[in-house]
Design brief:
The chain is an alpha+beta fold and 453 residues long. The chain is 20% helix and 32% strand. The protein has 3 domains: 91 residues, no CATH class; 145 residues, Jelly Rolls, CATH 2.60.120.230; 171 residues, Jelly Rolls. The strands form 6 sheets. Strands 1, 9, 14, 17, 20, 21 and 24 form a 7-stranded mixed sheet that branches. Strands 2, 5, 8, 10 and 13 form a 5-stranded antiparallel sheet that branches. Strands 4-11-6-7 form a 4-stranded antiparallel sheet, with no helix packed on it. A hairpin with a 4-residue loop joins strand 18 and strand 19. The longest helix is centred in the first third of the chain and has 28 residues.
């Protein structure tokens, strides 16, 4: 009995020793020629390579080692990889989510604390597969685009005022096609000066005149691209024209700024399509991408009363509802240099309940992410539910993106102005489709619960 009691008394000590030993063994394995190199190669080198948009290269240990303390700081504070989307709030199932897992962050922190060791030189990692900075983001998954539509070339000076280019080009399509994915990509050094590039679709009406058909896509600095889920169709019509509206900022903004003239500035749209006739294979719903305005209280026109005082703060709020059920497929807040946060909520009038969907507390104009919800997590809204969009602005010296906190800031299209809206991709359902999706999700949840018993 005394022996048993003695062993029981030693149990906490033994557990502590085992825990510390486990940590030591784990730390010993955290070397660049192992887990750490894998994390960096899979998550960082895509930007931090020769010709990439990152300001330094991370292709080898000798390139990484001098930056280890900064890497630790940026990773621990979730500033890198640059994907601003709050943890543990609302929908976390996202397609194309760049965020590191918490255990990966912990490993990076522990590795740097241990002196950023290389590990066994005999176990050197193979050089990472380097993605061509000018390659299409969906090429590895979907191959090369089925269609590329380029803008008219334009030279951008090294300094001066904002520039815009508005023009039409033919799509070249001879039949209606449903879009599977779309990416807008400034060509080469143009990515440093293209603030945004909106593209809409125009078709010829019965009178032989061009009229707006709808939005094609939107690009802003740092945006990866969009994927259209199965079972819906975002249509690019035959014989249509692409109407470009491109905003350029001489000298560039953000970490990719070149500070020099950019000649032959061209922006391209890459389009991947579903197979011809896709829209006739079963019930396919319409999806569209649209700009949903977020206004200051009392504003009747977009940005009409948007005024941010010097060294001050402001907030906008917008409400949108539909007379039919919908599914929110993606959420992309938009602003300029003073915007720093955004949220998406849903208000249900019948119950008075508000549901948090997405929150971005550290938004930056240099990374306009399009948050694409997973197929089983994309919010389903019954008819009458209200989208609540909010955005916050910081015009003080504490905002690192603020060029001049002593300026009055007004709503407008220039980089130094502000805007307040969100781009939402929405699938428009009928009652039957809505109820079917709700039932399918409930069935999946029940199977998961049953499988965990």
């Amino acid at each position: 009995m005394r022996v048993v009691k003695s062993l029981l008394g030693l149990a906490p000590l033994l557990l502590l020793v085992m825990h510390n030993t486990s940590i030591a063994q784990s730390t010993d394995q955290l070397v660049y020629n192992g887990e750490i190199g894998r994390i960096i190669n899979e998550n960082c080198v895509v930007c931090h390579q020769q010709g990439g948009i990152g300001p330094m290269q991370f292709e080898t240990y000798d390139q990484v080692r001098p930056w280890a303390p900064l890497i630790q700081y940026k990773v621990a504070n979730r500033q890198m990889p640059p994907y601003a989307y709050d943890q543990h709030i609302g929908v976390q199932d996202l397609i194309g989510d760049w965020r590191l897992q918490q255990d990966e962050i912990d490993k990076i922190v522990a590795w740097v604390d241990a002196g950023a060791p290389l590990g066994d030189p005999e176990n050197a990692l193979p050089r990472p597969d380097l993605k061509d900075p000018n390659e299409w983001n969906f090429a590895a998954e979907l191959g090369q685009p089925d269609l590329i539509v380029a803008s008219v070339s334009m030279d951008i000076p090294a300094n001066g005022n904002d520039l815009w280019s508005n023009h039409n080009v033919s799509s070249g399509l001879t039949a209606d096609r449903c879009i599977k994915a779309v990416q807008v990509k400034p060509r080469g050094d143009a990515r440093a000066v293209v603030h945004h590039a909106n593209s809409s679709v125009q078709t010829i009406n019965e009178e032989g005149k061009l009229e707006r058909y709808g939005m094609l896509t939107e690009y802003a600095m740092g945006k990866w691209g969009e994927k259209v889920p199965e079972g819906v169709c975002r249509t690019l019509p035959a014989n249509s024209e692409i109407s470009w509206s491109i905003h350029m900022f001489p000298g560039g903004v953000g970490p990719t700024a070149q500070g020099q003239m950019i000649k032959d500035n061209v922006v391209e749209i890459g389009l991947w399509f579903y197979d011809e006739g896709y829209e006739t294979t079963g019930k396919v719903y319409k999806q569209d991408l649209a700009q949903y305005d977020i206004q200051f209280e009392g504003a009747e026109l977009r940005n009409a009363k948007m005024v941010i005082p010097p060294n001050g703060y402001s907030m906008t709020q917008g409400f949108h509802s539909f007379d039919h059920p919908v599914r929110i497929d993606s959420f992309q807040p938009h602003g300029h240099l003073r915007m720093n946060a955004a949220t998406l909520e849903i208000f249900y009038p019948e119950t008075g309940r508000t549901e948090e969907i997405s929150q971005v507390s550290n938004w930056s104009a240099t990374w306009h992410h399009n948050h694409i919800y997973g197929p089983d997590s994309a919010p389903l809204l019954p008819a009458g539910a209200v989208l609540v969009l909010k955005q916050w602005y910081d015009n003080t010296a504490s905002n690192p993106n603020n060029p001049d906190p002593d300026q009055w800031v007004y709503g407008g299209s220039r980089t130094g102005d502000e805007m307040s809206h969100a781009w939402l991709a929405i699938t428009h359902l009928d009652d039957e489709g809505y109820e079917q999706l709700v039932a399918e999700r409930k069935a999946k949840e029940q199977r998961v619960v049953a499988g965990n018993d």
